């Protein structure tokens, strides 16, 4: 297998120095910037949202991978597209008409993704898999960075990646929550393509070193 791609979760960085964080990530070997949006309802915290994405879009060409943890994606998802998201992922637990949201995301030429909480079965989105560009499996209960990875989700990762190869589907599998150089190899072997990294990047001075450590661990 190839090395894992790494998408640092910028909300785990220094929120008072976002431009500096973006510049550091541009030179870090990161494959995209993961942007977590929390609404204070679906998850307890309220963090940064649409206006931040708009401003970030103006200062960088990096791929913006936006993960919305909000209760009402049906009525709000379009704002994230016009703000400049390249990939937009919403939680299946919150969506009333997920197929409609995905179709509209794809109509704008952006990548469509769905996120599953640890407790949600992948079969819930089986019918949607052919139109998805990315499926994110949460390996923590969403809401906070630096929580412990939940290995109980690994069985689901393996089932989904087997289903993907058996059906010749093309979506990327992303894992979000408690990823580090310690579990990168296991995740890669399970069929994961991209990992989100909060603490595993932003707890360190040198982001490039931290990312290399995850990537090289994933193939050794
Ligand atoms: C969890 C967020 C994650 C988080 C990852 O609610 O979706 O993206 O910031 O942080 P770590 O890697 O520290 O678990
Ligand atoms: Zn996330």
Automatic annotation (TrEMBL):
It comes from the Bacteria. GO terms for biological process: carbohydrate metabolic process; pentose-phosphate shunt. Its EC number is 5.1.3.1. Pfam families: Ribul_P_3_epim (PF00834). GO terms for cellular component: cytoplasm. Its cofactor is a divalent metal cation; Co(2+); Fe(2+); Zn(2+). Gene3D superfamilies: Aldolase class I. A divalent metal cation binds at residues 34, 36, 67, 176. It is an enzyme of class 5 (isomerase). Substrate binds at residues 9, 67, 178. Binds 1 divalent metal cation per subunit. The active site is at 36 (proton acceptor), 176 (proton donor). It catalyses: D-ribulose 5-phosphate = D-xylulose 5-phosphate. One of its GO terms (molecular function) is D-ribulose-phosphate 3-epimerase activity. InterPro entries: Aldolase_TIM (IPR013785), Ribul_P_3_epim (IPR026019), Ribul_P_3_epim-like (IPR000056), RibuloseP-bd_barrel (IPR011060). Belongs to the ribulose-phosphate 3-epimerase family. This is Ribulose-phosphate 3-epimerase. It comes from Fluviispira sanaruensis.
